Amino acid sequence: MAGLDKAVNRALAAVAGEKGSLGPEVQDAVQAALVVLENGGTTALAERAFNNVLAGFQKSGVTAIWRIDYVSVAGALVNGHAASLVTPVGPIGLNLTRVSAASDLGERVAKKPLAPATLAGEIERIRTLPTPHNRWVMALAAAGAGAFFAKTAGGDSAALGICAAAAGIGQFVRSLFQTIGLTRASVTFLSAFCSGLVATVGIRLGLTQT
Questions:
Q1: In sequence order, what are the residues at sequence separation of 6 or more whose Cβ sits closer than 8 angstroms to the Cβ of residue 196?
Q2: Which residues, listed in sequence order, are joined to residue 88 by a DSSP beta bridge?
Q3: Residues 100-152: pLDDT tens digits?
Q4: What is the signed CA dihedral for 53, 8, 21, 55, rounded to 10 degrees?
Q5: Are 23 and 84 in contact, with CB atoms under 8 Å apart?
Q6: For helices 24-37 and 96-111, what crossing angle results, to 10°?
Q7: What are the CA-CA distances from residue 171 to residues 36, 96, 125, 186 (Å)?
Q8: Under a CB-based contact definition with an 8 Å cutoff, are residues 32 and 53 in contact?
């Protein structure tokens, strides 16, 4: 699966290289939006950051299609020909500090455009902002959420433990899978599989009756 992910990413990058003639401003707008998407932001927030950067450079007639694995951007050139840019979406994590910074950057650019080199540097700086919580804290938070869900569904104490373990382990292995460069779909599938496997084992062993 990892090999397939890399092949798809190489194909998308090749398309982007062949058709990336919309200008550096559009590419920077896409990168700002990707920061939002790859760190837990919504598509609406990503599109807002994208549109704000374009507005700052007074680029119009550019549209974007947001997919789980790539972003496709299309627009018209000065000579009237159409051009497109396809950029793969990288591994998805959760860092709302980066999401907030990317959104603020889009707002700033909309009011006062930055030099291309400065904008690219700001985007790269935001990409390297540290995660506010380590993977153990995130796993603990997921375990607590899983236990709360089991409690609201009327589960017994064993069900709370199973859900907490499944959610916590699922979140922990998700953070591990993200470090090896898998796509969003692959990370989601594999972490959900591990989480479901833990829950299935607990139920099959008869640990809970609810």
A1: 166
A2: 70
A3: 999 999 999 999 988 888 999 999 999 999 887 888 998 999 999 999 999 89
A4: -10
A5: no
A6: 150
A7: 20, 17, 26, 14
A8: yes
Which amino acid does the sequence have at 85? L
Q: What is the largest CA-CA distance in the chain?
A: 69
Q: Is 161 left (phi over 0), alpha (psi -120 to 50) or beta?
A: alpha
Tens-place pLDDT, residues 57-68? 988 888 899 988
Integer Cα distance of 99 and 39 in angstroms: 6
Q: What are phi and psi of 73, to 5 degrees?
A: -120, 135
Rg for the chain (alpha carbons), in Å?
21
Question: What is the percent of the chain with per-residue pLDDT over 70, rounded to a whole number?
Answer: 87
Instruction: Tell me how far CA of residue 73 lies from CA of 85, 86, 183, in angstroms.
Output: 5, 6, 20
pLDDT at 2 over 80: no
User: Do residues 88 and 69 make contact, with C-beta atoms less than 8 angstroms apart?
Assistant: yes
- In a 13 Å sphere around the CA of 173, the CA atoms on its Cβ side amount to 18
Residues 6 or more apart in contact with residue 40 via CB below 8 angstroms: 92, 93, 94, 95, 96, 99
**How many residues does the structure list for the chain?**
210
For 87, which DSSP code? Answer: E
Contact 200, 150 (CB under 8 A): no
